[in-house]
Amino acid sequence: LVADMRRVHAAINRALSVSFKHCERREAGDRAILGNFLDFVESMVEVIDAHHAAEENVLYPRLRAWLPELPVAELRADHVQMSRAGWAVMAAMDRARAAPPPVEMTELGRSIARLASLWRPHVRVEESYITEPRLEAAAAGERLVLLAQEMVEQQLGVVRPRELVVPFLLHNLPPDDRAALSPRIARQSLTPEWAERCAAMRPFLIQ
Predict the structure, then answer these.
(1) Residue 203 has what DSSP assignment?
(2) Helix H or strand E segment including 123
(3) Which of 3, 70, 112, 186 has the most CB atoms at less than 10 Å from its CB?
(4) How high is the pLDDT of residue 128?
(5) What share of the chain is helix, strand, coil (3-state, %, to 5)?
(6) pTM (2 d.p.)
(7) C-alpha span between 195 and 1 (Å, rounded)
């Protein structure tokens, strides 16, 4: 459970950094490059939203009993702020799609930076409270395994389009972490039927 949570956090951390650095180039390049990059950014926002939905619906209700010191109210308030920041990213993406070339990337970069400024301290708080020793002291191992499975099911159940988002999640991780991620996710790597759709994002991914 904790290892998978940290891997998802790491994938999103990387994606935020890659996205912001690409925006620092100021201009998007041709329409094909822009579209590929916006697929990457949209997948990032989808993964963040799905991860937070799983925390809200599955993780936090369970941890209230197991880790009463976890500041759930504050973490949920962070989710609200990040959701609004995600909407701002999506709105900036829509404007980038509609703009005549060359597309100026400053607004999108600012909106991604705002999302990152909320995400990173939120993750530090979660990871400081939600640790293996604390969970193992509070709950039996089989309950933690079941909770990890529920988290995966919840996240996979809401992400769209899955043929972009699942490869996005897996390939923002180095191979060892990718292989160690929950098997339910790891089995859904770049399958042939998804390869064409997600191939355009590959310049931004870890192969």
Answers:
(1) G
(2) helix 106-129
(3) 112
(4) 96
(5) 80, 0, 20
(6) 0.91
(7) 29
Average pLDDT, the chain: 86
The total of other beta-carbon atoms located within 10 Å of residue 70's CB is: 19
CB 164 within 8 A of CB 43: yes
**Rounded CA separation 8/181 (Å):** 9
CA dihedral 44, 45, 50, 55 (to 10 degrees): 100
Cβ atoms of 105 and 22 within 8 Å: the answer is: yes
Q: Which two tokens stand for residue 123?
A: 């993750």
Distances (CA, A) of 165 to 41, 51, 71, 111, 161: 10, 12, 29, 20, 6
Amino acid letter, 103:
V
Q: Could you read off the pLDDT of 168-195 as tens digits, one per residue?
A: 888 899 988 888 876 666 555 555 656 6
Gap between the Cα atoms of 205 and 168, Å rounded: 7
Per-residue confidence (pLDDT) for residue 83, from 0 to 100 = 97
- 67 with 134: CB under 8 angstroms? yes
User: d(Cα 191, Cα 28) in Å, to the nearest integer?
Assistant: 29
pLDDT at 78: 98
Q: For residue 107, what pLDDT is reported?
A: 92
Q: How far is CA 77 from CA 57, 68, 115, 119, 122, in A?
A: 15, 17, 14, 12, 10
Confirm if 129 and 67 have CB atoms less than 8 A apart: yes
